[in-house]
Amino acid sequence: MNVDLASMICDAVEKLYFQSSLMKIIFISEFVTVIISFGLANLMIFAIWEARALHFNVRILLICVIITALRRIHSAGGVVVIASTIFLAFERLIATCRFENYENRGHKLIGLLLTFLLCAIAVPVCWRTAPLSDTIYPYCAFGLNDYRATCDISYALFGIQVVALLIFASLWYQNVKKMPQVQRFQKSANEQPHTLTMRFQLRENVDTTRLMLPIVAINSLFMLACSIIYAIFLPPLTPTTVLTTDVLRSVVDYAPISEAMILLYPITTMTFMLLLPVTSVHIKRSLRRLTGLRRCFGYETNVVDSIDHAAGRDYFEQLRQQWA
Fold this sequence. Notes:
7TM_GPCR_serpentine_rcpt_Srab, mainly alpha, transmembrane helix, 12 helices, single chain
């Protein structure tokens, strides 16, 4: 490295890290939000595991999502978070197709298999190292050395999130549409005790898909924002780019934008953690038990729609037959 080039890099580093108030504010914000998101994520892991009302497969896959979310701020950990939503969508797809006996049989093997596949993706992706480059930049960021590959990956991840969002929306619609059919079947002359399990599984499918819809929607918006930022602001660098004054200027200009995007990672994780108890009553109750907030809010009273006496008699008669 010649003296002039070293001097340019030092000047760029001083301007970026010592003279920029914006970068200092972003770094402090990252430090605070990462600590908060880490604490919320660990608390949510215990809350989900203790929410026994949720199906085992849903709990274990949600825990995998949160664990990988803790790693997403480094390297390509976000790839695993995006992929995990597809695995959850597959699990709910199986639950919807086999709703007649999915809850009875448990199908824990499905959850364990999907978890194994997710971990098989997570380990090499989360711990991979960035490609080596002979060029030294005053700022380092994932994808900075390969503009084309970074843009292509972000577009692919956004497409995966859109597909997952469509799958969850379709599953929610299908499960809601099946509810009246099961209720009509329950009132028919050939009703069987197993219709109670069917109704329960359908309600769980509706609740779980409704839980995932806002989460996947937020991830989709996040990946859309990343794709737009990469397409507009990411410098078109390659591993063989020759370092010049213009290249240094483009890297320095991109650095605050990149750090602001990195700041979105813990913010998205925090939003994800806050949405879980809001959209799932089982997780909310488990969280209140763990934190002791149940004493502050008191005991919840479930409010259900009124039903006619005939439907009530049918329901409890089925319970009696099932427990006999």
